[in-house]
Specification:
- The complex is a heterodimer of chains A (about 80) and B (about 500).
- With about 80 residues, chain A is an alpha+beta fold.
- Chain A has one domain: SH3 type barrels, CATH 2.30.30.90.
- Chain A has 2 helices and 6 strands; from the N terminus they run ββαβββαβ.
- Chain A has a 6-stranded antiparallel sheet with strand order 1-6-2-3-4-5.
- Chain A is globular, with a radius of gyration of 11 Å.
- Chain B has 3 domains: about 170 residues, 3-Layer(aba) Sandwich (Rossmann fold), CATH 3.40.50; about 90 residues, Orthogonal Bundle (Helix Hairpins), CATH 1.10.287; about 210 residues, no CATH class.
- Chain B is of the alpha/beta class.
- In chain B, the strands form 2 sheets. Chain B has a 7-stranded mixed sheet. Chain B has a two-stranded antiparallel ribbon with strand order 7-9.
- Chain B has 26 helices and 10 strands.
- Classes of the chains: A alpha+beta (about 80), B alpha/beta (about 500).
- At the A-B interface, α1, β3, β4 and β5 of A face α4, α14, α20, α21 and β10 of B.
Chain lengths: ~80, ~500
Amino acid sequence: MLKLHEVKAGNKAVVKKINGDARFLSRITSIGLSSGCEIKMLHNKPKLPLLFYGRDTVIALNRQESANVFMEVIA
Amino acid sequence: MMAAANRQISIALLGQPNSGKSTLFNGLTGARQRVGNWPGKTVEKKEGHFNRGGIRYQVTDLPGTYSLSANSEEEIITRNYIASGQADVVCILVDSSQLSRSLFMLADYAGIECPAVLLLNLIDVAQSQAKSIDAVKLEERLGIPVIPFIAADPKQYDAFFPAINRAFKEKKLINNKSLVDKYRSLQSSSYEKLLNLMPKDGIDNFSASWLSVKLLEVDEAILSKVQKALPQETYQKINNILSAVQNGALETAGCKFQWIDELLQGALIQKERKKVLSKFDTLATHQRWGKPLAIFIILLGLIASFIPAAPIMLAGSMILKLGEPIAQTLTTIGAPQMLIDFVNQVVLNTLYFAVAMIGFVFGVNLVFGFLEEIGYMARVSYVFDSTMARLGLQGKAVMPLVVSFGCTIGGAAGTRVIDSWGQRVLTIALTWAVPCAATWAIVPVISSLFFGAWAPLIIVAIFVVAGLHMLITAKVFGEKLIREEDRAGLIMELPPYHRPR
């Protein structure tokens, strides 16, 4: 399993697990990220938040909190 | 049934940010609206009304939130309003171009016992992305009226009004049976155990099932609501069950999204898929070019502000023309010279300046409102996130600071998009140090008056101090204002660009 910010741009991955307190979980799930959700990494550049596409939405997530999201690369 | 007797229906608009709620609100109520605050809160409350077919509709625009949890004041206000039963029908707006995510609000709402209507807004954007959505099938599955919708086009509201009336008369509730089945199958059947302990009829409009789910999500506000409604002994049992639950919010969200996927099975058809990021977006989010582009567009925006502002400023300058005739009249009636000077130099100039400022503030708000509306501001927040992080803030704080170059009031008002209270207060504390239009005008004048040739140095020094002030304020107060658990980083969507209304 990789952390979300370790997924390379252009790769597709599936969310396996998300850690964090109830507040973080509720914030991140309400924007569309939950276990089993498939994403495609769009930008993964240092100094910029991650940019990925999931559930028909382009989502920006800061790098620090993305370390709590665990992924499995599928393509 | 008072409402029916009076032929009045109260509707509330519910939806995630960018779902088009405000557009619908304006389209429905036009000028018949009132903007205030929710009692005791700094959150804006918009109410309005309209008449149609002999019925008076009272409309409340609820704050835009991503869910009905208790993460922000906005979310708590929203769900308390729905629970209170003040709304007869809740209109849930979703963005059809991002349906599978946008429906999360609907899934979070399911289980609340207040009639609802689902509006598939931005259906034109969805169609332009080669998506087709079967509203009839969705209506069959959901049991509430489902209307394909374009909030920006009030001429097409025809299907909307009968849907509201139908939901109101037949008390249409969301059919959440299969969603509840998913909750039942969760870890160690904690949902079932909680459900058995809840008050049978729920609390207010919240059903027992909805309450149980929120408890699994470790929702403190609901926990204390339940504590008040139940005997101590039962509450203790609830706490025992909850202490064994882990990652509840993640599990229930999984159920909700699974339910949404099943709901959309065969009802949402996506033909070919265009590139996710357009050419412009690739540039706007580019590591190197994103920031220069943003600065360029913002500068262009500030200049463009003068276009709508110019007529107002011109009208203001007419005031100065009044100086001579007034002075002449005053002289002929023999007024003292001091009074003439006062009127001419102080009163007229002040009026002129006030009108010119109104023009400029109006222009700035219009232009930056436009950039926000079409969706570009989200890209600016994205590229400036790491810059803002140095001040202990996040990307969403960049917009208020930028607007403050035009007008501090607009900047402070714009901070409401920031999700954490501490970050919001800190941003407000920084906005006033950003030199606004008036500062830009006054600092050079006063400096050249007092310091002559040294003026440029003084001007630079003043702005450097303003910058330092921001850094120091952020350092000194940031730690205290933003508690560890509040230190929320950027989590946001980049909405697809769309036409402003």
